[in-house]
Amino acid sequence: MNILILGSGGREHAFAWKLAQSPLCTKLFVAPGNAGTAQVATNLPIGYNDFSAVAKAVRDQEIDLLIVGPEEPLVKGIVDFLRKQPDLSSLRIVGPDANGAQLEGSKDFSKQFMNRYGIPTAASQTFTAETLQEGLDYLGKHSLPVVIKADGLAAGKGVIIAETLIDAQTALREMIDGQKFGEAGSKVVIEQFLRGVELSVFVLTDGVNYKILPEAKDYKRIGEEDTGPNTGGMGAVSPVVFASKAFLQKVEDKVVKPTLAGLQQEGIKYQGFIFIGLMKVNGEPYVIEYNARMGDPETEVVLPRIQSDFVELMAATADGELDKVVIQVSPQTAVTTMLVSGGYPGDYETGKIISELGRLEDVMAFHAGTLEKNGHVLTNGGRVLAITAQANSLENAVRKSQEAARMVQFDGKQYRKDIGVDLIRYSD
To answer: Under a CB-based contact definition with an 8 Å cutoff, are residues 29 and 50 in contact?
Structure first.
């Protein structure tokens, strides 16, 4: 079949790399893609939020299967738009409609959803411009630290953990009055801070049936030992040593099943990925957030461990036949180290020549923010390359990923040297 992936990051390169391995894949396109996707697919110069241009590409390239990578087009309703095109009624789509994407598009919606269906999560309240003073008063009585979340999409930067009352009240004012995150902060969720260890579980569902993919842990902060500002993700590990079979069974029983039952109860036919951000607190799972797509850089450690035909999995998801396929998972450990531009997550320069990529052996360099120009691969984003290694132990996977991260060169390169190290020495 002819397949189109929407997106331009490491997640989409990982999708393209995996799909291209299948004999079921006839032609593969990525819009807009990057220098890495161009190695395994045809890039189309189309913005993924340009719905009309996407529909035209589906027609022109005779696309059978569409996979939506990023959250923004999902929240904005690309699935709904395409479903309304009479001539595209047979198009298979992996990705929820706008109603389903509210799980990620609105923190307030997702918290209310969890509370309705008894899904364990931190206690919270939501405030707006009209109730700002109530929110400030509420913070005055709240335990510290406290979590302040912009309701809408804020490119991964809309969550602040405030250690003091002054910081918390400042963050609330900046979001609501100062419009720090624009429309995304017109509603703000104030949430209890949970102490525990964090991980992510990924569910693939066709609306009724589901498969649980390999779990992962990502590293959000720019600095080693989780210091400095939050980023889109500096690395990831799969599997996760503290995610025992017993704990993952609790996740399935207390989170996955009621989430899918709740979606059905709400009349939402959800066909795609659900990313469940979890905190393990005293052996129990609590949901921090939902995402309506795969994570990045978690995809870059999850997909290499999936041994099943990925086109078959995606088609079964779109066709409502996930119960007919089996997911096979490699027992190996995958570790991703993210190479980022100097200055990221603040201001950074692009257009730096990347060298030594050709020398990498036995690791995969998933392109996150790259561009090919005049025969050179250039940096084209804050997060540039996800260097993924697999090995028969966590220690070896960490070593291989780090060695490759040292090898690749570009001006201003930054990366964390401790991805996965905390798990090597982890004990419950």
So the answer is: no
